[in-house]
Amino acid sequence: MAIATLDKVQVLQRSLYRAAKAAPGRRFHALYDKVHRRDVLERAWEQVRRNSGAAGIDRTTLADVERYGVTRLLDELASELKEQTYRPLAARRVWIPKPASPDKRPLSIPAVRDRVVQAALKTVIEPVFEADFRPAALGSARRRRPTTPCRSCSMSPSGASAGW
Predict the structure, then answer these.
(1) CB atoms within 10 A of CB 73
(2) Full-prediction pTM beyond 0.85?
(3) Using one digit for the tens of pLDDT, what is the confidence trace for 45-93?
(4) Cα-based distances in Å from 77 to 82, 94, 117
(5) Residue 56: partners with Cβ closer than 8 Å, 6 or more residues away
(6) How many Cβ atoms from other residues are within 10 Å of residue 124's Cβ?
Protein backbone atom coordinates (compact mmCIF):
# COMPACT_ATOMS: atom_id res chain seq x y z
CA MET A 1 0.00 0.00 0.00
CA ALA A 2 1.33 3.43 -0.88
CA ILE A 3 2.26 6.01 1.73
CA ALA A 4 -0.10 8.44 0.00
CA THR A 5 -3.02 6.12 0.82
CA LEU A 6 -2.07 6.14 4.49
CA ASP A 7 -1.84 9.92 4.41
CA LYS A 8 -5.31 10.31 2.85
CA VAL A 9 -6.86 8.10 5.52
CA GLN A 10 -5.02 9.97 8.25
CA VAL A 11 -6.22 13.28 6.80
CA LEU A 12 -9.78 11.96 6.84
CA GLN A 13 -9.42 10.77 10.42
CA ARG A 14 -7.92 14.07 11.55
CA SER A 15 -10.67 16.09 9.90
CA LEU A 16 -13.37 13.92 11.51
CA TYR A 17 -11.65 14.19 14.90
CA ARG A 18 -11.32 17.96 14.65
CA ALA A 19 -14.94 18.38 13.58
CA ALA A 20 -16.12 16.21 16.48
CA LYS A 21 -13.86 17.99 18.97
CA ALA A 22 -14.90 21.47 17.79
CA ALA A 23 -18.62 20.73 18.09
CA PRO A 24 -19.27 18.07 20.76
CA GLY A 25 -23.02 18.15 20.12
CA ARG A 26 -22.64 17.61 16.38
CA ARG A 27 -24.24 14.55 14.84
CA PHE A 28 -22.41 12.87 11.99
CA HIS A 29 -25.12 11.74 9.62
CA ALA A 30 -23.06 11.29 6.46
CA LEU A 31 -20.22 8.91 7.26
CA TYR A 32 -21.43 5.97 5.17
CA ASP A 33 -19.88 7.35 1.97
CA LYS A 34 -16.48 7.37 3.66
CA VAL A 35 -16.60 3.64 4.50
CA HIS A 36 -16.56 2.56 0.85
CA ARG A 37 -13.71 4.87 -0.15
CA ARG A 38 -10.95 2.87 -1.80
CA ASP A 39 -8.20 4.19 0.47
CA VAL A 40 -10.22 3.33 3.59
CA LEU A 41 -10.89 -0.20 2.31
CA GLU A 42 -7.20 -0.67 1.48
CA ARG A 43 -6.24 0.42 5.00
CA ALA A 44 -8.85 -1.98 6.39
CA TRP A 45 -7.45 -4.86 4.33
CA GLU A 46 -3.94 -4.13 5.65
CA GLN A 47 -5.25 -4.24 9.22
CA VAL A 48 -7.09 -7.52 8.64
CA ARG A 49 -4.07 -9.09 6.92
CA ARG A 50 -1.73 -7.93 9.68
CA ASN A 51 -4.03 -9.44 12.32
CA SER A 52 -4.22 -12.80 10.49
CA GLY A 53 -7.11 -14.76 11.95
CA ALA A 54 -9.06 -17.85 11.04
CA ALA A 55 -11.55 -18.36 8.24
CA GLY A 56 -15.17 -17.46 8.86
CA ILE A 57 -18.28 -19.44 8.06
CA ASP A 58 -17.48 -19.33 4.33
CA ARG A 59 -14.08 -20.99 5.10
CA THR A 60 -12.28 -18.32 3.06
CA THR A 61 -8.77 -17.69 4.39
CA LEU A 62 -6.52 -14.68 3.82
CA ALA A 63 -4.49 -16.76 1.37
CA ASP A 64 -7.69 -17.55 -0.55
CA VAL A 65 -8.46 -13.84 -0.78
CA GLU A 66 -4.95 -13.09 -2.05
CA ARG A 67 -5.34 -15.81 -4.71
CA TYR A 68 -8.79 -14.45 -5.62
CA GLY A 69 -7.37 -10.95 -5.81
CA VAL A 70 -7.40 -8.33 -3.08
CA THR A 71 -8.21 -5.61 -5.61
CA ARG A 72 -11.14 -7.63 -6.90
CA LEU A 73 -12.47 -8.23 -3.37
CA LEU A 74 -12.14 -4.57 -2.41
CA ASP A 75 -13.86 -3.50 -5.65
CA GLU A 76 -16.75 -5.87 -4.91
CA LEU A 77 -17.04 -4.65 -1.33
CA ALA A 78 -16.92 -1.00 -2.41
CA SER A 79 -19.64 -1.63 -4.97
CA GLU A 80 -21.87 -3.49 -2.48
CA LEU A 81 -21.36 -0.79 0.14
CA LYS A 82 -21.99 2.03 -2.32
CA GLU A 83 -25.17 0.39 -3.64
CA GLN A 84 -26.18 -0.48 -0.05
CA THR A 85 -26.55 -4.17 -0.93
CA TYR A 86 -23.79 -5.42 1.39
CA ARG A 87 -24.97 -8.01 3.89
CA PRO A 88 -22.59 -9.64 6.37
CA LEU A 89 -22.41 -13.41 6.62
CA ALA A 90 -23.20 -15.23 9.84
CA ALA A 91 -20.18 -15.62 12.08
CA ARG A 92 -18.64 -19.05 12.59
CA ARG A 93 -19.00 -20.17 16.22
CA VAL A 94 -16.21 -22.14 17.84
CA TRP A 95 -15.67 -23.10 21.47
CA ILE A 96 -12.30 -22.36 23.01
CA PRO A 97 -10.98 -23.39 26.43
CA LYS A 98 -11.02 -20.88 29.26
CA PRO A 99 -7.65 -20.30 30.88
CA ALA A 100 -7.11 -22.29 34.08
CA SER A 101 -10.53 -23.93 33.79
CA PRO A 102 -11.99 -27.00 32.11
CA ASP A 103 -14.86 -24.88 30.78
CA LYS A 104 -15.10 -23.50 27.28
CA ARG A 105 -16.34 -20.18 25.98
CA PRO A 106 -17.85 -19.28 22.62
CA LEU A 107 -15.89 -17.34 20.03
CA SER A 108 -17.51 -15.97 16.89
CA ILE A 109 -15.28 -15.62 13.83
CA PRO A 110 -16.53 -13.31 11.06
CA ALA A 111 -15.72 -13.93 7.41
CA VAL A 112 -12.66 -12.15 6.00
CA ARG A 113 -14.80 -9.81 3.87
CA ASP A 114 -16.84 -8.86 6.94
CA ARG A 115 -13.68 -8.17 8.93
CA VAL A 116 -12.55 -5.81 6.15
CA VAL A 117 -15.84 -3.91 6.34
CA GLN A 118 -15.69 -3.83 10.14
CA ALA A 119 -12.15 -2.43 10.02
CA ALA A 120 -13.19 0.19 7.46
CA LEU A 121 -16.13 1.23 9.63
CA LYS A 122 -13.87 1.43 12.68
CA THR A 123 -11.39 3.57 10.75
CA VAL A 124 -14.15 6.06 9.94
CA ILE A 125 -16.09 6.25 13.22
CA GLU A 126 -13.26 5.88 15.72
CA PRO A 127 -12.05 9.51 15.45
CA VAL A 128 -15.59 10.76 16.12
CA PHE A 129 -15.87 8.76 19.34
CA GLU A 130 -12.25 9.36 20.32
CA ALA A 131 -12.96 13.10 20.42
CA ASP A 132 -15.65 12.52 23.06
CA PHE A 133 -13.39 10.60 25.46
CA ARG A 134 -12.43 12.52 28.56
CA PRO A 135 -8.72 12.55 29.35
CA ALA A 136 -9.33 10.37 32.43
CA ALA A 137 -11.40 7.80 30.49
CA LEU A 138 -9.31 4.73 29.85
CA GLY A 139 -11.56 1.87 28.75
CA SER A 140 -10.48 0.77 25.31
CA ALA A 141 -9.39 4.22 24.17
CA ARG A 142 -6.42 4.28 21.85
CA ARG A 143 -3.06 5.42 23.17
CA ARG A 144 -4.22 5.01 26.76
CA ARG A 145 -2.95 2.31 29.07
CA PRO A 146 -4.41 0.82 32.23
CA THR A 147 -1.37 2.01 34.18
CA THR A 148 -2.04 5.68 33.40
CA PRO A 149 -4.28 6.22 36.49
CA CYS A 150 -1.56 4.75 38.70
CA ARG A 151 0.85 7.42 37.50
CA SER A 152 -1.64 10.23 38.15
CA CYS A 153 -2.59 8.84 41.60
CA SER A 154 0.99 8.65 42.74
CA MET A 155 1.49 12.37 42.20
CA SER A 156 0.10 15.06 44.50
CA PRO A 157 -1.38 18.27 43.03
CA SER A 158 1.99 19.95 43.50
CA GLY A 159 3.68 17.26 41.43
CA ALA A 160 5.53 15.64 44.34
CA SER A 161 5.04 11.98 45.09
CA ALA A 162 2.04 11.43 47.36
CA GLY A 163 3.34 8.08 48.58
CA TRP A 164 0.12 6.15 48.02
Answers:
(1) 19
(2) no
(3) 999 999 998 999 999 999 999 999 999 999 999 999 999 999 999 999 9
(4) 8, 26, 8
(5) 89, 91, 92, 109, 110, 111, 112, 114, 115
(6) 23
